[in-house]
Amino acid sequence: MKPLKVETIGDLIDGDYCLTACCEGGCYNSADLDLESLARRLGRDHSAMHDALTPLLRCSKCGSRKIGIRLSANASQKFSTRQGWLTPPKR
Ligand SMILES: [Zn+2]
After folding, report:
1. Ligand 1 centre and the CA of 29: distance in Å?
2. Please, which domain of life does this record's source organism belong to (predicted)?
């Protein structure tokens, strides 16, 4: 396990983390965020905390701004299998 020191977008990229955004506005759409393009847009020092990121996000499907984000590790391993939208994990 890597130590969980994740405060900025740059930390996420360097730590090989992955952020998944989930629509909580009713359609339950979810997708991995493109951290590289977020870093280009916001800067690598931009906070990666929920409250700092979610106001910037909007569901591409239903337009809801009620977005949850989830952090997961090993983005590069996941990268080879993921394609665009993901199905929400079962609870
Ligand atoms: Zn939605």
Report:
1. 5
2. Bacteria
> How far is 15 from 5, CA to CA, in rounded Å?
9
CA of 85 to the centre of ligand 1 (A): 12
- In sequence order, which ranges of the chain are alpha helices (DSSP H)? 9-14, 35-42, 50-53, 75-79
C-alpha of residue 23 to centroid of ligand 1, in Å: 5
pLDDT one digit per residue (tens) for the chain, 91 residues: 555 678 999 999 999 999 999 999 989 899 999 999 999 999 999 999 999 999 999 998 999 999 999 998 876 665 444 444 445 555 5
Question: Taking the domains of the chain in order of start, what are their residue ranges?
Answer: 9-77
> Which residues are placed with Cβ below 5 angstroms of ligand 1, an ion?
23, 25, 27, 29, 59, 61-62, 64
Query: What is the distance in A from the centroid of ligand 1 to the CA of 56?
Result: 14
**pTM score, two decimals?**
0.72
